[in-house]
Design a protein that fits this description.
The chain is mostly helical. It has a domain of 41 residues. 55% of the residues lie in helices and 0% in strands. The chain has three helices and no strands. The radius of gyration is 22 Å and the shape is elongated. The N and C termini lie far apart (65 Å). Pfam families: DUF3460. InterPro entries: DUF3460. This is DUF3460 domain-containing protein.
């Protein structure tokens, strides 16, 4: 018998009680994380960065 923490047991129980939960998680993840990035656009962003001064709050 392998050890399962209370948190893992709770999550497993929750997923068995609410079968739609995993599909909703995937749907939410796809909204925020699963994106195709335009490499040319990303390159332009990195080239446009302005170097930051060592002390940001300096008034000089």
């Amino acid at each position: 018998m392998k050890y399962e923490s209370e948190a893992t047991q709770f999550l497993n129980q929750l997923k068995t009680e609410r079968e739609y939960l995993e599909a909703e998680q995937r749907k939410g993840r796809s909204l925020l994380w699963d994106k195709q990035l335009d490499r040319n656009l990303q390159k332009g962003y990195s080239e446009a960065k302005v170097p930051q001064k060592p002390y940001v709050y300096s008034t000089k």
